[in-house]
Design brief:
The complex is a heterodimer. Chain A is built from 15 helices and 39 strands. Chain A is α+β, with helices and mostly antiparallel strands. Chain A folds into five domains: about 120 residues, Immunoglobulin-like; about 140 residues, no CATH class; about 120 residues, Immunoglobulin-like, CATH 2.60.40; about 110 residues, Spore Coat Polysaccharide Biosynthesis Protein SpsA, Chain A (Alpha-Beta Complex); about 140 residues, no CATH class. The two termini of chain A are about 65 Å apart. Helices cover about 35% and strands about 15% of the residues of chain B. Chain B has 14 helices and 16 strands. In chain B, helix 2 runs parallel beside helix 3, helix 4 crosses helix 5 and helix 7 packs parallel to helix 8. The relative contact order of chain B is 0.15. Classes of the chains: A alpha+beta, B alpha/beta. Chain A: This is Glycosyltransferase 2-like domain-containing protein.
């Protein structure tokens, strides 16, 4: 393609930021308003330009070039593609400045009569996403350029007297002027709000009669699209009148409306506004503002919406569950907004059948004849990711975009408590085709963030029974269910000389029976054991209970012992201790500190635990499998003590210091299974190793029925846990 | 079907086809590794199929085969456990339970493939069976045949069909649900989408076709089907199984000392009848009770001991049962469920066993048990019962679901001099488990041999 060399003269060139160059000069050919630019024939970026012709017939231009990293380039060829695809070659740049005052001064000197036009062009060039945001703050060179130009071009005309912010950051301004334009936002040029920064804002505006003003002036009401600078920081509002730029000064005794009042104030003014189109423009601008009130029920179209629950995990995201009855497909978009965040919900939500909603509206005249029988997919569950930096107490609402308006629904979000998160999990459909993505982009991060914000459970120690100076081992017996006593467990230990010098920490987590402490005290006295009753009422599961009790353990070695584990014979603790003392004698290669577990059997003598091993499948995928689980115990006959990839947290002996290191950064899971495995993997990551002793056999029974829990919740928990586990360990757990 | 149909088998032992030579040396020098799969374990649910499969398991082990018995279970007997589908029974090292509670009865299909497949695959890989002998795919799901074939491509799959579940969606009864004015059930001879839709109006006809296609597709992976009766084999051949792939192999029983016959006072009649089995609408217990009531009205006083429970039956049926006992009060006694080891004592108190089932039956365990104790059996002259009991030879046939006919035959039984002795003397020996094990081993060997010999049909009958 042939290039056209231009006859151009670049009067000033100013770098507005690292990526944006502003040019002012004269040129013999028209420049495209929006096009691409090539530097030295290779690097490309955006070009926006604007031209005007002065009284002498000379064509002047302002142009903005945006190329990433432009400040560090010395381009020798600048080519701009025009509307016909031809390349216009600009002359080589020299004397590129960084102070916008230079450009303003050049304009004032060379084109003083065209400053209004230049400001028009500059506002157009610098708005819109193609030109980026520029630097922040008052020193911002764009701000200095615009405010410099405004300073030169804009004349005072009237005052802003009442300012009020809408919830979404838009601004209502009431005042007076001679030349403020009137109309809806799509017909009016933007105004420039001069505060710490100078930013353009689309407006709707309408005049109203004020008897106190001369005939050529009028009251004005305008709504500036947000987010607008805080009203008390605004210095001037520049607007484009028919004959040039003017500005409203801020009245000395201006009134700043309280939050949320702007909407009502503007609505009150509607009746006085002059001109149909401007009044409609203002009315539309107010209607598009959320003012904390539900407006869905006022929609004329057959559209209704209800919320069942909304949960927000600050810093991670939102979950919304409810229904949208929209039989005529009037709703174009459902968006969640608040705290500066905007996220479309309906692009990727899951719909579910809500026959109750169909039934409830079956006799509503608005919906009569519009509900198709059997078409009940009104329910939805939706997620939105939250960018960082949104205030923890931000308020959110839903916005329904319709063909002819917008309606709002406040979104009261529950905080991420254990209950609300469980309800959220229970509401999600595990059979949704997008469930993997929902888990990895929403549920996983939300639950992880919620868990990391949770405080570590506190605990109080109540010594009971005998006092031991230096216990040989600290037994941690976590109780997190409603059992009334742990008599059987304590009796078993009392009956085994191995436990004579052991301190037994019975940890009472959440939901334990109120009589548990009394029963433990009685048993400790009767059996003359050294028992520490650790009250940890916020510990939700055995692992949190263990963590809560660890500071109270005094022995160098800790025995983790689930209350479901029932020793069948004496001497098993000594066997574990021997293995810990001489780990290499029983199959561990190195002299690493060791976590050792015995074999655990079910009451039918099938294998419950015989070591967990990592199995590498096809394609290198690693799965952790419980060996021999469910098989008859005789299958272990020929097995020898061996190193395994994970022991069992239900019954394991290990050095206290190793356990503390492993628990320092607890894994965050919903189920116990992955927590146990995760603990063992952390033990190994902390330099320990895991051993399994096949010959030492204990019985472990589940007294609680596992069917009591909601199967859907269970499946969802497992999906989230699988994701968390894979994130942390790059492996999966066998089903 | 005629109730006077002649027994399918010739009456005398000598006339039967020459049996397969038992325990021919196997091709492999080592004994075969056999995985036996049943839909339940007899110690949890002592049904005929479970009992026979488990006894065969014992027989095969005694004959030197390496066996593993895998029995399915569900919520009725066991709760599922985390991390594994397997459980065990007592201390047995070669019996494993598989929790398979997510089962689609209509399609005979396993719903929880995600949970079951890894466990079953691991078991198959660990045990490496030469033969997988399936006794039912209830609970397990017919898809597991596919898994077996995939994980153990060289293993042979043998499938003993113990009932008509694959053919009939009405719990394999091949009897219609109660229909018409009297709410009567009628015998069904052939399943078809239309006929099945009439039984289950809520299900469209094409679902029955899909069901059949699915089951047949999975059955295509089986190397050899075994039918405990010729009647059952004929039903499956009529349904579409390749006749070359299904042979008759009679069930067996562990040997047992026959219970002594009842001592009679001089001139006393053989009037002690006994019923064994579940009390459900298909077994005809109400027909028997009705027959006794009719005999009472004719001035006779037979006794009927009813052994069995009515677990899981509808209130309506229980009421009918109660009414039946009431009408035969004084003569019919409900003794409740019994354990297998009580059988000799219960038999000792009976002269006749009645089995008036109103469905086809296959190879009823009760007939074998009665024969072991040399008790003639009065049966409905249909299906597997008519095949196992020869009318006028080792038992008597009655018209099914006809209390008057049953009353007539029972009256003949207690009044005709010498009848009991003659029928009792003709009762053939029941195949002992050892023999069945050896016949099965011979079959396994045949299947495992590189050049399988042609199947000789019907050569493993009793």
């Amino acid at each position: 393609m042939k290039d056209r060399s231009t006859k151009a003269d670049i009067t000033a060139a100013v770098l507005l930021d690292e990526d944006t160059l502003m040019l002012f000069g004269a040129i013999d050919q028209p420049l495209p308003a929006d096009s691409v630019v090539m530097l030295d024939g290779m690097i490309d970026g955006r070009f926006r330009g604007g031209c005007w012709t002065d009284g002498a017939g000379e064509r002047w231009f302002l142009g903005a070039i945006r190329v990433a990293g432009l400040a560090h380039m010395r381009p020798s060829r600048i080519e701009i593609e025009d509307a016909q695809g031809k390349h216009l070659l600009l002359p080589r740049l020299s004397n590129v400045r960084t102070n916008p005052a230079h450009l303003v001064a050049a304009l004032r000197e060379v084109q003083p009569q065209s400053l209004d036009t230049a400001l028009d062009v500059a506002v157009t060039l610098l708005s819109g996403p193609a030109m980026g945001e520029g630097e922040a703050g008052e020193g911002h060179r764009r701000t200095r350029l615009l405010s410099g130009l405004a300073q030169e071009a804009s004349r005072p005309d009237g005052f802003a007297e009442v300012l009020g912010r809408f919830r979404d950051g838009a601004l209502m301004v009431q005042g007076w002027s001679h030349g403020f334009p009137a109309g809806a936002s799509h017909v009016l040029p933007p105004v420039l709000v001069e505060a710490e920064e100078v930013r353009p804002h689309a407006i709707a505006a309408a005049p109203f009669h004020r008897p106190d003003l001369p005939d050529d002036a009028a009251g004005l009401l305008t709504v500036l699209e947000g987010p607008v600078a805080a009203p008390d920081t605004i210095r001037r509002i520049h607007f484009r009148a028919a004959d040039g730029w003017r500005h409203l000064a801020i009245f000395e005794h201006r009134q700043l409306l309280a939050d949320g009042v702007a909407s009502a104030h503007a609505r009150d003014m509607l009746g006085q506004l002059q001109g149909d189109a401007p009044r409609r423009g203002i009315a539309a601008a107010i209607a598009a503002r959320y003012n904390g009130v539900e407006t869905v029920s006022q929609i004329q179209a057959p559209v209704r919406m209800g919320l069942d629950m909304a949960v927000r995990v600050p810093g991670a995201g939102l979950f919304v569950c409810g229904w949208l009855l929209d039989p005529t497909q009037a709703v174009r978009a459902v968006t969640v907004k608040g705290g500066g965040m905007t996220a479309r919900l309906d692009a990727d939500w899951s719909r579910l059948a809500r026959k109750d909603v169909s039934d409830a509206f079956a006799h509503d005249p608005l919906f009569a004849g519009r509900l198709l029988p059997g078409n009940d997919g009104h329910g939805f569950t939706a997620f939105a990711r939250e960018p960082a930096g949104i205030a923890a107490d931000a308020e959110f609402h839903l916005e329904l975009t319709l063909a002819d308006g917008i309606a709002f629904l406040p979104l009261p979000c529950q905080p991420p408590t254990g209950d609300s998160l469980r309800r959220m999990l229970g509401a999600v459909n595990p059979d949704s085709p997008s469930i993997d993505r929902v888990v990895s982009t929403h549920l996983g991060p939300m639950l992880r963030t919620a868990a990391s914000a949770k405080a570590a459970p506190s605990s109080v120690l109540h010594p009971m029974g005998r006092v031991l100076k230096t216990p040989r081992v600290s037994v941690i017996l976590p109780v997190c269910d409603g059992r009334e006593d742990v008599d059987l467990n304590i009796a078993r230990m009392a009956n085994d000389p191995d436990f004579a010098e052991a301190e037994i920490l019975v940890v009472a987590g959440a939901g334990t029976h109120e009589r548990l402490a009394g029963m433990v005290r009685q048993a400790a006295g009767f059996y003359r054991l050294a028992v520490g009753f650790v009250a940890a009422p916020t510990a939700a599961d055995p692992f949190e209970a263990m963590a809560a009790s660890l500071p109270h353990a005094r022995a160098d070695r800790v025995l983790l012992l689930s209350p479901s584990v029932l020793p069948t014979e004496r001497g098993w603790l000594s066997a574990l201790e021997r293995a810990i003392r001489k780990p290499n004698a029983v199959g561990s290669a190195a002299l690493a500190p060791v976590m050792v577990s015995p074999t655990l059997l079910y009451e039918d003598h099938s294998v419950r635990f015989a070591g967990i091993v990592a199995v590498e499948g096809s394609g290198g995928a690693v799965t952790y499998e419980r060996r021999f689980a469910g098989y008859p115990r005789d299958w272990l006959k020929d097995q020898e003590a061996s190193a395994v990839d994970a022991a069992s947290a239900d019954c394991a002996l290990l050095p206290r210091e190793l356990l503390m290191r492993a628990m320092a950064d607890g894994g965050r899971y919903l189920g116990l299974e992955p927590k146990g495995l995760d603990l063992c993997l952390r033990v190994r990551a902390a330099g320990g190793s895991c051993l399994w002793l096949p010959k030492v056999r204990l019985v472990a029974v589940d007294e609680q029925s596992r069917n009591a829990r909601d199967p859907r919740l269970e499946r969802m928990s497992a999906l989230v846990d699988d994701w968390s586990f894979a994130e942390r360990w790059k492996a999966s757990i066998a089903a | 079907m005629s109730r006077r149909r002649l027994p399918l088998l010739p009456a005398t032992q000598a006339a039967r086809p020459a049996p397969r030579q038992p325990a021919r040396p196997l091709v492999a020098a080592r004994p075969p590794r056999v995985l036996l799969i049943a839909h339940n374990h007899p110690s949890l649910h002592p049904g005929g199929t479970e009992i026979f499969a488990h006894e065969l398991f014992g027989g095969l082990k005694a004959a030197g085969a390496e066996c593993l018995f895998l029995a399915c279970t569900n919520d009725i007997h066991r709760a599922p456990r985390p991390g594994t589908g397997f459980q065990t029974l007592g201390r047995s090292a070669d019996e494993v339970l598989l929790w398979a509670g997510h089962f689609d009865h209509f399609h005979q299909s396993q719903i929880d493939l995600h949970g079951l497949v890894p466990d079953l695959s691991n078991l198959l890989r660990a045990f490496r069976p030469d033969i997988v002998h399936v006794h039912h795919t209830l609970l397990l799901g017919v898809e597991m045949l596919f898994l077996i074939r995939r994980v153990c491509p060289d293993a042979k799959i043998v499938y003993t069909l113990h009932d008509y579940y694959p053919i009939c969606a009405n719990d394999g009864q091949m009897v219609t649900p109660p229909r018409g004015e009297g709410g009567t059930r009628t015998l069904c001879t052939k399943a078809s989408p239309d006929a099945c839709h009439r039984c289950f109006p809520d299900r469209p006809a094409d679902q029955f076709l899909l069901r059949e296609k699915h089951i047949k597709a999975m059955f295509g992976l089986v190397d050899r089907f075994l039918a405990p009766s010729r009647f059952l084999r004929d039903r499956y051949v009529a349904w579409g199984l390749d006749p070359a792939r299904i042979e008759v192999m009679a069930n067996s029983r562990p040997s047992v000392e026959p219970a002594p016959s009842r001592d009679l006072a001089p001139g006393a009649a053989r009037d002690a009848f006994a019923y064994f089995g579940n009390l459900n609408p298909f077994k005809g217990v109400t027909v028997a009770l009705d027959a006794v009531a009719r005999m009472v009205r004719q001035g006779l006083s037979p006794s009927l001991a009813v052994h069995g429970g009515s677990l899981y039956q509808t209130p309506e049926f229980r009421q009918r049962l109660a009414d039946g006992f009431e009408a035969a009060r004084g003569l019919a006694t409900a003794h409740g469920p019994y354990r297998p080891q009580e059988m000799p004592a219960l038999m000792a108190a009976a002269d006749w066993v009645v089995m008036p089932s109103i469905w086809w039956e296959n190879a009823p365990l009760v007939i074998q048990e009665a024969f072991q104790h040399r008790r003639p059996v009065i049966v409905s002259g249909i299906g597997g019962m008519a095949e196992a009991v020869r009318d006028g030879v080792d038992g008597l046939h009655v018209r099914p679901n006809d209390p008057a006919d049953l009353a007539r035959v029972m009256t003949r039984a207690l009044t005709e001099p010498g009848l009991w002795e003659r029928l009792s003397a003709n009762i053939p020996a029941v195949r002992p488990t050892e023999e069945a094990a050896s016949l099965h081993l011979a079959l396994y060997g045949e299947l495992l041999s590189p050049a399988p010999s042609a199947l000789i049909q019907g050569n493993r009958t009793r």
